[in-house]
Fold these 2 entries.
Entry 1:
Amino acid sequence: MDYILDNVGEWKDRLVNNSVKSFTEMTPQRWIRIIVIVGAYMLIRPYLLKAAANRQKKQLEKEAEELGLESSGEPDANALRGAKSKAAGDQPKPGTRQRKTQEKKT
């Protein structure tokens, strides 16, 4: 047991010494290199995440097609009741209902 604790103490000392030396021995060229790498990562990261999300979405849609599920993934309430869904051209224009109720009142 003492052997393990001695090793952990030695690892801690080495980590502290190496960390301190790495910061004290940094040249301007190394600082610039680190800043460029971190800056490039920060600029590219959103695009990488967006590409990964698109790839995952395509994969999920492909799996849904293979299983015979709808592409939206959400059940349509009209389909569950067995009613026909209205096409976009069948719906009345906004305000039609309000106009009809006002005509009835007058």
Entry 2:
Amino acid sequence: MISASCRAQEEFLAIVSELVDEHDQHRYGGLLLSSVSGIISAELSGHFTTGNWRTSADELVDILVTIITDGRPRA
């Protein structure tokens, strides 16, 4: 099971490396993984159905990816 998890993480990082420079893939991969985990948790607990946030999980993930690909700090 651990080897399957490692393979999945490697595949995820390969996808992330298509969005950011290879040397940044772990940092931005961690940001994406942890952020999306929180977004999913909020979605499943019903936070986005109350109307208070006026957004959806899908929209937040789209914004996050856009920020990472277009708005990341330049070295």
